[in-house]
Amino acid sequence: MTGKVVLVGSGPGGLGLMAVRAQEAIAEAEVILYDQLPGDEILATLPESAEKIDCGKHGGDHTLEQDEIEALMVEKALEGKNVVRLKGGDSFLFGRGGEEMETLRAHGIAVEVVPGITSAIAVPESVGIPVTHRKFASQVTIITGHEDPTKGESALDWQFLGRTRGTIVVLMGVKNLGKIAEALVGNGRDPATPVAVIERGMRPDQRVTVGPLAEIAAIARAQGVRPPAVIVIGEVVGLYDGTPVYKP
Ligand code: SAH
Q1: Domain end: 95, 114, 133, which one?
Q2: Ligand 1 lined by 201 (C-beta under 6 Å)
Q3: Which residues are catalytic?
Q4: Which domain holds residue 103?
């Protein structure tokens, strides 16, 4: 019989923020394909009995490509195994879970999804920044920062992003932070808009760096900011005051 694949989002932090169904699916899994983003606390709980495949580091330094990961999932499920694909946050937000679901469906393999709490909302929240607020932001846009806005055809609408009100949350944006800030200001966003860069959110070594949009890239560079980080742009960042509101 063909096995099934459970696409599990582990949430943004430790075990406490992972769904009960996610923990069950992991306990039942015969094969677990995982990334590093779920973090040590969760990765340490993967069952001894399961075959565990690190998709970030495989066969030395080789990182598995997306098509290799999908091929492995298909192969294991067709062998009749119960497979879990485990990633940080939610699998369907910049997690390629949608593509994996399509591939599995194309092979007639049953798919179950277990939503995870996404870092896009939870990481700002964990430092006291709500992504919406009646006074400051009635809309929020979540974008990938992976794209270089200065390079040709962007899949992002920078004109819209520059003039949109409300909050912009950038994932995978550390490397391009300067270009993103320039593209926003160049398209009309107030250069004084407050920005928070939250590194390793909800982990013991979390760090928050704040500054105005026009200067945040230089500040982040001077502070040696590194991925993974969630970048929040908008007036809601004004609510950040450093008081702890989340217990890792
Ligand atoms: N599917 C994930 C996002 C995957 S993209 C989710 O829903 O959260 C990977 C990016 O997510 C990272 O580059 C970073 O921008 C962000 N990210 C995820 N977890 C994070 C954390 N604990 N702290 C800071 N950034 C995080």
Answers
A1: 114
A2: yes
A3: 35, 57, 172
A4: 4-114
